[in-house]
Amino acid sequence: MSMLHTDDVNEILTLMNPGDDPVLECMEDQANREEFPTVGHEVGAFFRLCARLMDAESVFEFGSRFGYSAYWMAPAIGPAGRIVLTEVDEEELDQARTYFEQGGYADRAVFERGDALEIVDRYDGPFDLVHLDHENERYLAGFETVREKVSQGGMIVADNVLHSGDAMSPADLRAVLDGPHSPEEGSSLAGIAEYYTHVIDDPEFETSVVPVGEGIFVSVRTEA
Predict the structure, then answer these.
(1) pTM for the full predicted model
(2) N or C: which end of the chain has fewer CB within 10 A?
(3) What distance in Å separates the CA atoms of residue 166 and residue 157, rounded to the nearest whole number?
C-alpha cells in the first residue's frame, strides 16, 4: 500500500492487479519473510506497462536484488528482448536466476554480479528502459553513466524518490527543493534532491513524477 494516495485509490489499484503469478507470489513470500520491501504490485505493473507501451526490447537495471522488479518487465520485452539484472550479492543474484527459470524468462535475462555503475560500461546499448534502484545517493551517477546509452524515446525510471521509510518523505523533499533546508550530505534525501534538480533541467530529457509505490521519477529522452 502506498502512502502517496488515498485508501480508496489503493483499493482500486489492488482490484486492477494483473492475474496471479505463482513465481511473483513466491518472491513476495520471500520478501515478507526477510522483511525486504519490494516495489510492489502497483509499481511492478507500471513498469510492465511502460515496457509494453514502448515496445521495449532492451532493459538495464541498476540494483536487482532477487529479481522482483525485473521479473515484472520480463513478459513485456518478448523472447527476443534482453533485460540486464545487476546485483552485488551472489546469493540474491542466484535466486533471481532461479525465479526467472521458474517463470520461463531466463532466456531473455542476463545476470551480472557486481557494481552496476561498472557493469553498464561494458554495454554499448541502446537501452529502451533503465531502472535505477540502487543507492539513492548514487542515482545521479547512474543517470550520467547510462544517459548516452538510452535510445531516443527511451526512459529512465528512478524508484523510491518521494518516500523511503524513516529516511525521507514528500514533505522532506519539498523542504529541500524550496530551501534553505540542507539535508545531511550523503543521505538518501540529499541524493534524491540532487537527482531531481539535475534531471528536471536536463534539455535532453523530459521528467515527470508518478505517485505510485514510494514515488517514481520518469525521464524520457526527447533528444539524442
Answers:
(1) 0.89
(2) C
(3) 22
Q: Chain centroid to CA 168: how far?
A: 18
User: What whole-number distance in Å separates Cα of residue 189 and Cα of residue 157?
Assistant: 17
Residue 1 has pLDDT above 60, yes or no: no
- Quote the distance between the C-alpha of residue 101 and its chain's center: 21
Give the contacts of 180 (CB within 8 A, at least 6 positions apart): none
User: How does pLDDT run across 153-166, given as a tens digit for each residue?
Assistant: 999 999 988 876 65
Helix (H) or strand (E) holding 71: helix 68-77
Q: Is the distance from CB of 50 to CB of 157 less than 8 angstroms?
A: yes
Please check whether residue 69 is in contact with residue 47, taking contact to mean a CB–CB distance below 8 angstroms: yes
| Nearest residue to 95 (alpha-carbon basis) of 135, 68, 132 | 68
Q: Tell me the three cell numbers of residue 180.
A: 534553505
- Fold of domain 7-221: Rossmann fold (3.40.50)
Show Cβ contacts of residue 93 under 8 Å, excluding neighbours closer than 6 positions: 64, 66, 85, 87, 111, 112, 113
